[in-house]
Amino acid sequence: MSPSRRTAAKEPPSKPAPARSAPLKSSSLRSSSLRGAAPIFAALGDETRLRLVAVLCAGSALSIAQLTSGTEITRQAVTKHLHVLAQAGLVRHVKVGRERRWEFEPSQVEEARRSLDLIARQWDSALGRLKLAVER
Amino acid sequence: MSPSRRTAAKEPPSKPAPARSAPLKSSSLRSSSLRGAAPIFAALGDETRLRLVAVLCAGSALSIAQLTSGTEITRQAVTKHLHVLAQAGLVRHVKVGRERRWEFEPSQVEEARRSLDLIARQWDSALGRLKLAVER
DNA sequence: AATAAATGCAATTCTCCGGTTGCATTTAGC
DNA sequence: GCTAAATGCAACCGGAGAATTGCATTTATT
């Protein structure tokens, strides 16, 4: 039960796909990269988390207490945000004594960067084709 | 009433800022760019919306009906996602007769790209300083 | 003018998320 | 060993967000 909230029915109960021009299949973007980039963007899409990333990518690995001091939110809130970032692969933690130092992990940011580059290139290429078609 | 949910109290009711080392102020990132990038990332942080952007950045301006055909979700869901993207400045719409064509708007993607570049550069510079400090 | 297509608008539902509070647990320092 | 710091864990709460359903509205088309 509970149809997973993202697997839903189409518009009217019966409508055999208008298929007007439907340029939505195989656009060379959803196939290559961009798959799996949404979680990274979602993790970066919060003000507090973006600040945490900004602080951590400055180099030093910091404890939760250090990261909490300077913000207005609770230590547990910071902890949760760090876990979200870790889930997305943007940060990592190392135990050092009784504290846990969190450090930046650059690989997923690179992944997100590639995705945006792909979108930008796709757009530029579309512009180029348009310009070419107009000139003829 | 309702303390705005982001203006909250610190950890214990009274704790005059431990100020252990606190390297969180003025990290040269939160000041320059990266301010206001979170909403863009949040808009891109949804699978469906990212697909919409991927489709639209291929060039052609498409109607809601066109964008809906090919997905599993309802037309109204697509409409809402488009509005979210428009709110973030990632897409735009033009009325053309009785339909409304949605087209990609590249400026905010560039903004997001600059933010990620900033993070990556900050990280590289931190690595460089570390390497230098180790070599001495 | 009538019809059907394309969309807009409003209400509703349900889950997830950001945040807090309270207490338990590990661990450094004396 | 005892104390206090740093963290972990679990429950809870309010609101935002993703999606649906139903109906109204605009606008080509015939």
In short:
The first copy, chain A, has 136 residues and is mainly α.
Set out the fold topology.
The structure is a homodimer of 136-residue chains.
Chain A: H1 38-44, H2 47-56, H3 64-68, H4 75-87, E1 91-96, E2 99-104, H5 107-135
Antiparallel strand pairs in A: 1-2
The first copy, chain A, binds a DNA duplex (30 and 30 nucleotides) through residues 2, 5-6, 8-9, 46, 48, 63-65, 73-77, 79-81, 84, 97-100.
Task: Write structural notes for this entry.
Two copies of one chain form a homodimer. Chain A has five helices and two strands. Chain A has a two-stranded antiparallel ribbon. By secondary structure, the first copy, chain A, is mainly α. Mean pLDDT of chain A is 81; it is low at 1-28. In chain A, helix 2 packs across helix 4 (75-87). The interface between A and B is large, with 68 and 68 residues. The first copy, chain A, binds a DNA duplex (30 and 30 nucleotides) through helix 4.
